[in-house]
Design brief:
Shape: globular
Structural class: alpha/beta
Number of helices: 16
Oligomer: single chain
Strand order of the largest sheet: 2-1-11-10-12-13-14-15-16-23-22-18-17
Distance between the termini: 53 Å
Helix content: 25-40%
Strand content: 15-25%
Mean pLDDT: 88
Radius of gyration: 23 Å
Length: 522
């Protein structure tokens, strides 16, 4: 990758940077191809013209089912300067699930990669999109080439430029996913590009930073971190399919300085043989920021021991955030996810809506100072998850006297056994300390007397047989680390836990078969 050429900090945001220095490399695609600012800017401009020619105007939406690549960022930049809503779709969803998002969002155009041809075709058919408004990167029968959207459009910026947004859909742990829709401000793209978001984590413009995108861009945080980096003048290095050793190679090759990760990636990095881990130089990394799921204590300590104090943590949701903890914060207060961002506030409320004092467990609520949101076409959910200006995504936690947040679990995942609250994250952390456990989940299953009992589902590490002897050894291992009421009563084995590539565990898929024919207590 070519060296970063400093740009006058007054030229704030990708647009001005591309005009000031169009030859600067701003993106390295998964295949190693380097893209300059001018080339990416021209592609985004052409896509705006193509979408407008397809009939899209300010406030309209288009959906993308794309892997990490140049097309994803072209779509993001096009929406951001044309007053459009870009709807990123999880490409692991099946046709009917994608169709729901396309229809619910009102997307007028679908751009899909040929890798997801079957699901994209089924979705477009079910959503009733005309053939003229289906576009494929690669070849999908019945879809027009993506190049047609760009063909013939001028490379120059479009007229009437106005800021658009990304419209993410929540994961849908209960019921159908809902779109998070923020009102358009009418500002120019230069006035509000969200690049300053990274200042919360101490990441500054330019400063020889290089951002590694190592998780799917359809996730809110992954795209937000990457887009903010792009606007701050940081070249992006994209991974398509993540692997532990390939990540280490890219960090060394491109001298990457910051990235967004999840604890599952930490766990798999640590599972690499010692000779592989020591083969690569990761000393360039300044901010290995993780979130999205609880990180077991021993995993966090091991990563800090290997990568140093660049291992940092945040708490947020697609709806907003949040909290941030440096490595120093966490080592002083193990388990914390940090203090509130400067642009947000944190509070804990009980089930009656009363704000709780420090040290008392309740539902975590957040308040953003940068604007509100609503769940698209779901006023009830918008209203139900709020107390005044505060909103929640259902996490349980407490604040200490100094304002540091400690999470326990999602309220929906909490196990209630014999009237006692049990938090799966603590059990899962204990399971993961067993050398034969590659991945693990804990949840409640029906019990005739207690209401629920603890079930463990384990993905065995390579070389370990999933048999009764291993199950007994895992249960004994938990018995030495957990109080009796927290211990799993049984262990089942699976080939792989149902996680998306960003590490999110689809626990409902594991839990539902055990509750078939039973009514789960709320």
């Amino acid at each position: 990758m070519t060296a970063l050429i400093p740009v006058d900090p007054a030229h704030n945001g990708f647009w001005a940077q591309a005009a000031a220095d169009p030859t600067r490399t701003v993106l390295v695609a998964p295949d190693g191809e380097e893209w300059t600012a001018g080339r990416l800017h021209a592609a985004a401009n052409r896509l705006v013209h193509g979408l407008r020619a397809a009939g899209l105007g300010t406030g309209d939406a288009f959906a993308v089912v794309l892997p990490n690549g140049v097309e994803f960022f072209t779509a993001y930049l096009a929406a951001a300067q044309a007053g459009l809503y870009m709807v990123p779709v999880n490409h692991h969803l099946v046709g009917p699930e994608i169709a729901w998002i396309v229809s619910d969002s009102g997307a007028k155009v679908l751009i899909a990669h040929e890798r997801y041809a079957q699901a994209a075709t089924a979705a477009a058919d079910e959503a009733g999109l005309p053939a003229s408004h289906r576009h494929a990167v690669g070849e999908i029968p019945g879809f027009r080439p993506y190049a047609d959207l760009l063909q013939g459009g001028p490379q120059t910026p479009p007229a009437d430029r106005t800021l658009g947004w990304v419209m993410n859909y929540t994961s849908g742990t209960t019921g159908r996913p809902r779109g998070i829709r923020r009102p358009l401000t009418g500002r120019t793209p230069e006035e509000s590009h969200l690049g300053g978001f990274l200042g919360i984590f101490g990441i500054r413009p330019y400063d020889a930073n290089v951002h590694l995108v190592c998780s799917p861009l359809y996730h809110t945080a992954v795209l937000q971190f990457a887009a903010a980096s792009l606007h701050l003048g940081h070249p992006l290095v994209l991974m398509d399919r993540w692997s532990a050793e390939e990540m280490l190679r890219l960090v060394e090759r491109h001298r990457c300085t910051h990235t967004h990760m999840v604890p599952t990636q930490f766990h798999r990095l640590l599972a690499l043989p010692e000779e592989v881990r020591t083969r690569y130089d990761v000393s360039s990394m300044r901010h290995a920021i993780h979130g999205a799921a609880p990180c077991p204590d021993h995993v966090k300590r091991a990563m800090i021991g290997w990568w140093g104090h660049c291992v940092e943590e945040y708490y947020a949701a697609s709806e907003g955030g949040g909290a941030f903890a440096t490595a120093e914060d966490w080592l002083k207060r193990p388990g914390t996810v940090g203090k509130a961002w400067p642009i947000s506030e944190l509070a804990v409320f009980d089930d009656e809506g009363n704000r709780l004092p420090a040290g008392e467990l309740g539902t975590v609520y957040m308040k953003m100072r940068t604007g509100g949101f609503s769940y698209h076409k779901d006023e009830d959910k918008t209203r139900r998850n709020r107390i005044g200006d505060w909103f929640t995504v259902g996490d349980l936690g407490l604040l200490d006297e100094d304002g540091y947040l400690f999470l326990r679990d999602r309220k929906i995942d909490m196990i209630i056994s014999g009237g006692v609250n049990i938090y799966p994250a603590e059990i899962e952390a204990a399971l993961l300390t067993h050398p034969a456990v590659a991945d693990a989940a804990a949840f409640g299953i029906p019990h005739p007397d207690w209401g629920e009992e603890v079930k463990a589902v384990v993905e065995p590490a390579e070389g370990h047989l999933p048999d009764e002897a291993l199950a007994a050894d895992i249960l004994a291992h938990c018995g030495r680390r957990l109080a009796g009421y927290k211990r799993p009563r049984s262990v089942d084995f699976v080939g792989a836990l149902p996680r998306d590539p960003n590490g999110k565990l689809y626990k409902r898929r594991l839990r539902e078969p055990y509750w078939e024919g039973h009514e789960r207590p709320l």
